[in-house]
Amino acid sequence: MTPTDDGARPPRGMLAVLMLGQFLVNVDTAIVNVAAPSVQDDLHPSGGALELVVSGYTLTYAVLLVTGARLGQARGHRRMFLLGLAAFTAASLACGLAPVTGALAAARLVQGAAGALMVPQVLSGIQIHFTGKARARAQGMLVMALSGGAVAGQVLGGVMVSADLFGLGWRPVFLVNVPAGIALLAAGVRVLPRDAGHGGGRLDLGGVALLSAGVPLAIVPLIFGREAGWPAWTWICLAASVPVLALFVRRQRNVAARGGTPLVNLGVLARPVVAWSLGSIALATSTYFGMLFTLALYLQQGLGKSATFSGLVLVSWVAAFGVAGPLLPRLPARVAAHAPVAGYLILAAAYLATGLSHADGALLAVLLGFGGLGLGLGFASQLGRATADVPARLAPDLSGVLNTNSQLSAVAGVAVFGTLYLGLGGPPRHAFTVVTAAFAGTALAACAAGLAGWLAARREQARPGGQGSSPARRADVTASSRVCASSLRIADRR
Fold first, then answer.
1. What are the sequence ranges of the domains in the chain?
2. In Gene Ontology terms, what is one molecular function of this protein (predicted)?
3. Beta-ladder partners of 4
4. How far from 39 is each of 52, 203, 417, CA to CA, in Å?
5. Cβ atoms within 10 Å of 420's Cβ, excluding its own
6. Does position 10 have pLDDT exceeding 60, yes or no?
7. In the CATH scheme, what architecture does the domain 265-494 have?
8. CATH architecture of 1-196
9. Which of 194, 210, 295, 453 is buried most, with the most CB atoms less than 10 Å from its CB?
10. Residues 97-118: tens digit of each pLDDT
């Protein structure tokens, strides 16, 4: 696989297939949340069963992202992307035809696993096949695919359920993936470059087992704990996740010391630029998903707005987030280098203004638009900085870690900020003001982490024999720091 340099024409057909694959995964998450009430009316699931239908996708997706990334390296990124897409399409058909809640929940779990196999290959493919300005453009398009999927999921979900196409109720929100998936499969077989010289090797099954136990122990309580009132089992699971994940880290070190191939190369996390970027992204991501949850409650229960209004008002946020990708390459390099700090400062200011102004109309949409722009600027430049600091051979490790980091921070954001909002009581305006202040404080912490990452990147470039010593590497760092894609699955959880 030969990367595309600045002078070569980027493989647009390949990029389009990768972007549409990411788009499908994002659409499906948001679209199902909108369809949940219709599912409840038709299949009459219990509250827990309906939660599993909505969140089961997130569970298997988060658990298997790292494994999917490693399988891409070991068995070929093209092969795993197409296999994941085929499984995703088949699972969508099973969801649309599900006669009972159990079958629907099982198909959703398979959908999440398929998405985890497919999505890591998108970022890995961009990092492997593109360099310099070509990579910057590709990452900018990924930002647009992520934001566009969120908008399409919210809008299409409401339209399809309301239209009751062919009298099928909620089922078309899944069935629409079938023709789209088949067409994308046909295109992928034709345009995706064949895998050449992929790593092969054995998958660390022990590492898979430990990670597949540790991540659910952390995620399941965060998904279900708030609604269940945080019973004892949620805290037991959270506490148990710490030693299990510690055992996973120890095993990865031992496998690497023996000369084997660990599931995650921990050397990626040892890089200060990557570590600070992951922390900054996690903090900012948690505020976004917490905002999605609390804003919907505030608008509908506090202000009496409709569900349609609470969904459409977020279009300005997601659209502005997508603008960040094309915008960054047009900024001077010196300005783009400070995009994480500037972006998260804009995000914090938007949160404060939203909470203090109590806006509920056009002003709210404008403020949310600024928030989305700030988030996009921060994410794009942060992820670009991280990918520039990691060589292509470690692309699967970075892709898996980034995506898992995003999922964990998303469910943590809903759990922490959602619990804060619901626990405050009193007038909804007061509770929303307090929680938006908490969002702003967390965004400022993300800003501080982003600044630390910038300082770490400067030290790396100045170090003899480091990034700054290689002209090709300097060009890659400069271009990548100007634009990149968020690995976040920007979508409404609830």
1. 1-196, 204-262, 265-494
2. transmembrane transporter activity
3. 130
4. 12, 38, 27
5. 15
6. no
7. Up-down Bundle (1.20)
8. Up-down Bundle (1.20)
9. 453
10. 999 999 999 999 999 999 999 9
